[in-house]
Amino acid sequence: MTNPQDILNRMFHTQNSSLIYPKTEETNTQDFTEILQTNIFNVMLNRRSQRKFLDKNIEDWKIEIILAAADTAPTAGGFQGFEIYHIKNPSLKKQLVGAANNQPYVNSPLVLVFCKNPKRVKLTFPEEILRKFSIQDATLAAGYSQLAAHALGLSSIWIGMIDEEKISQLLETDLIPSSILCIGYPEKILLPKPKRNLKDLIHEI
Ligand SMILES: Cc1cc2nc3c(=O)[nH]c(=O)nc-3n(C[C@H](O)[C@H](O)[C@H](O)COP(=O)(O)O)c2cc1C
């Protein structure tokens, strides 16, 4: 069993230099305790995609946890074949809308672009396999961040309808994006969507 206190220590009681966003604001210990006691099943069951966000900034410490969550995902061979671009530049956010089929909500308070980085995957398999692994690495990482965002009282929308080439150009990288995760405080809480019956989904053979 992991002691939740260890996670806290790992994330915030370390030297500030090891944080991406050195903590400037006071954080309420109560907040942390509640988050660490968040039941993962509740988070999964209550998550719902959201496309309407409040015009409200997300606290740095929440961003830190969302990014750290991505870093806990399993990756092929443990090589972490993905990169995350945290888009802070407002004009770049607007341009990303155009690279995502003009979906306006891409311009959200927190925009994370998950990219594949097959070069990091140092396994002796054909390149095609390494590319597949890096898609899976980037996708899982984004999924973990999405759940973490929900656990932090935020909502998100996963954007897969993207023009990969345009985004690579905007980010000035050779890496190929796999998804954009747009996160913010929801305008209103939406109920989770109904899903298929497990009986229809699971195929026992
Ligand atoms: C691979 C993938 C691609 C998606 N692409 C988009 C997208 O481009 N735009 C969008 O508004 N939603 C997108 N979504 C969000 C889905 O529409 C949403 O997850 C789905 O309707 C189920 O709703 P739920 O997340 O509330 O369960 C995508 C989701 C996934 C997993």
Give me the count of strands: 4
Spans with pLDDT under 50 lasting ≥5 residues?
A: none
Question: Would you tell me which CATH topology applies?
Answer: NADH Oxidase
What is the top-level CATH class? Alpha Beta
Structural class designation: alpha+beta
Largest sheet: 4 strands, antiparallel
Please state the average pLDDT score: 90
The set of bound ligands, ions and cofactors reads: flavin mononucleotide
Order of helices and strands: HHHHEHEHEHEH
Total of helices: 8
Instruction: Kindly give the count of domains.
Output: 1
CATH architecture: 3-Layer(aba) Sandwich
Give me the side-by-side strand order of the main sheet: 1-2-4-3
CATH superfamily: NADH Oxidase
**Oligomeric description of these chains:** single chain
Tell me, briefly, the overall form.
Answer: globular
Helical amount: 25-40%
Explain the overall architecture:
The structure is a single chain. The chain has a single domain, classed as NADH Oxidase. Helix content is 40%, strand content 13%. The protein contains eight helices and four strands; from the N terminus they run ααααβαβαβαβα. Helix 3 crosses helix 6. The site of flavin mononucleotide has 10 residues, from strand 3.
